[in-house]
Amino acid sequence: MNDVNTTIDVRVLEYQANKLQELISEVHNCCKDRFSHEAKAFKMPQAELRCLMLFEGHKYLTGIEIAGMLEVAKSRATVIIENLERKGLVKRSPDPHDARVKLISLTPVGQRKVREIEEFMFTLHQQLLSQIDPAQRAAVINALETLRSSMEAVKAQLNT
């Protein structure tokens, strides 16, 4: 009887792991579609939108910080920053403590653009929630929090 229960448990776990993989892939694809839709809505490349959103909670960032946060090469980050600067969304200033470093910050136009993007994303998330039965919303959010925590725990194990 023990072998039967163990076999059933293994099969259930295999099914659930496959289903989780499939669902995460589908959610990831939905997120990519959202990023694409967002880029079209704001008539900007996704990389530039992502760069603008990095400034949340930061007055200044350096090119190296931006490259790290975007997970791109410094040369790619420089191109993104230059494009945003040409559009009047960011500006570069010398670092008062290190003349070799430029501090990048949002311009007032860039700050307005970030607020527009945030409002756009908030509206999309409200629309998403409206598709979920109000009685199930807390459970969905709790399940996502559990998933995120589990993913972070596995990531930490992989990094050790």
Word description of this protein:
The chain has 160 residues and is mainly alpha-helical. The chain folds into 2 domains: 1-42; 44-158, Arc Repressor Mutant, subunit A (Orthogonal Bundle), CATH 1.10.10. 74% of the residues lie in helices and 11% in strands. The protein is built from 6 helices and 3 strands, in the order ααβααββαα. The protein has helices at residues 2-42, 46-53, 63-70, 74-86, 108-130, 134-158; strands at 61-62, 90-95, 98-106. Strands 1-3-2 form a 3-stranded antiparallel β-sheet. A hairpin with a 2-residue loop joins strand 2 and strand 3 (98-106). Helix 2 (46-53) packs across helix 4. The two termini are 38 Å apart. The model has no long low-confidence stretch (mean pLDDT 93).
Domain module tally: 2
Whole-Å distance between the termini? Answer: 38 Å
Mean pLDDT equals 93
Uncertain segments are: none
Task: Specify the CATH class of the largest domain.
Answer: Mainly Alpha
Biggest sheet: strands, sense, closure? 3 strands, antiparallel
CATH architecture term of the largest domain: Orthogonal Bundle
Q: Could you give the order of strands across the largest sheet?
A: 1-3-2
- CATH topology category name of the largest domain: Arc Repressor Mutant, subunit A
Spatial extent as radius of gyration: 21 Å
What is the number of strand segments?
3
Beta strand %: 5-15%
Number of H/I helices: 6
How would you classify the helix and strand content by structural class?
Answer: mainly alpha
Anisotropy-based shape: elongated
Q: What would you give as the CATH superfamily of the largest domain? A: Winged helix-like DNA-binding domain superfamily/Winged helix DNA-binding domain
